[in-house]
Amino acid sequence: MKNKIILKPINILSLLILYLWLLCACDMNQSQEWAKVNTNGGNLLLRSNPSIEGDIITRIPDEEIVEFEYCSCKDRINGRNGKWCFIKYNGCEGYAWGWYLQLEGERNSTYNSQCQCNDEYVHGGPVYRLSIPRRREEKFFEEILKIHGIPQDGYIICRTRNIQGTVAYAKWKDNLRYIIYDDNYFSKVLDSYSAIILSHEIGHFELDHSFGFLAPRRQQELEADEFSGRSMYLLGYSLPETLEILSNELEGTDNYPSNSERREAVRRGWQAAQTNSE
Q1: Which of 12, 108, 193, 274 is 20 to 30 Å from 130 by CA-CA measure?
Q2: DSSP label of 131
Q3: pLDDT-derived band of residue 60, with 50, 70 and 90 as boundaries?
């Protein structure tokens, strides 16, 4: 008779604890932004809709810390212009009046003035509402410009949600270079993904790429990939770390190269930056 292997309950419990710990660790690595409630002693009302007509979900005490997502459309309450902001608190989520929220840390005033709730970009059909970038993307964006010696004047980075067909794109507006990224995607990826995508979009501008329908898209994409490879080296990423981002085997189209082509372009840029630094 063969011996049976019996798992003791303590082993199963240990595995469950390990699983939950890993799950929490993954959540902690996601990009988050926090705000402090500042009501001078009162409670901040969390509502179901961005309106004083919205149902009250809960009341948040003064000086509490909430998870800040984005600001919605402008409104006017008691003679004050402001914006409704989508926040999360103690398992609840909804809209709160932005006058009573203070973002933790200083933010770039340029982003605050340009990434307004009512700025609209049409890309692939729908209209997107823009918000100021999260700190991680703001930091990478400014660092990429710095390592290439690119002045920040004329560049704006904003975030939005649910972009169709891409996770970031570059566009001119009012003689400013806008880079718009999808916060739903960026909040779930590692730093290296954020860095290489933002570098790619900056590359389109720095290489004087056109954005029209007749533009040589495939060639421009590879040139921007090569620019991002140089950025990754200058940011301190190894070549294996950089190429791992494009490890999936995606086929190309008439306008977009395959991932194998992109990897080679990124490799050329990374190695060229290494050679120039020696």
Answers
A1: 193
A2: B
A3: very high
Give me the amino acid identity at 189: V
Phi, psi of 11, deg, nearest 5: -70, -40
| pLDDT-derived band at 71, boundaries 50, 70, 90 | confident
Q: Three-class SS of residue 265?
A: helix
Q: Which residues contact 237 (CB under 8 A, 6 or more apart)?
A: 192, 195
The H helix count followed by the E strand count for the chain is 8, 12
Q: Token pair 């003064």 is at which residue? A: 62
Distances (CA, A) of 233 to 11, 13, 260, 267, 268: 44, 44, 19, 10, 11
| Residues 150, 191 contacting (CB under 8 angstroms) | no
CA distance 209 to 255: 14
Q: Which residues of 136-159 are buried (b: 16+ CB within 10 A; e: fewer)?
A: bbbebbebbbeeeeeeeeebbbbb
pLDDT digits (tens, 9 = 90+) for 121-155: 555 555 667 777 877 898 899 999 999 999 988 89
Three-state SS at 259 = helix
pLDDT band for position 220 (cuts 50, 70, 90): very high
Contact (CB, 8 A) for 101 and 87:
yes
Token digits of residue 99: 């006058």
Name the range with the highest mean pLDDT among 74-88, 219-233, 247-261: 219-233
Q: At what angle do helices 135-147 and 191-206 cross, to 10 degrees?
A: 50
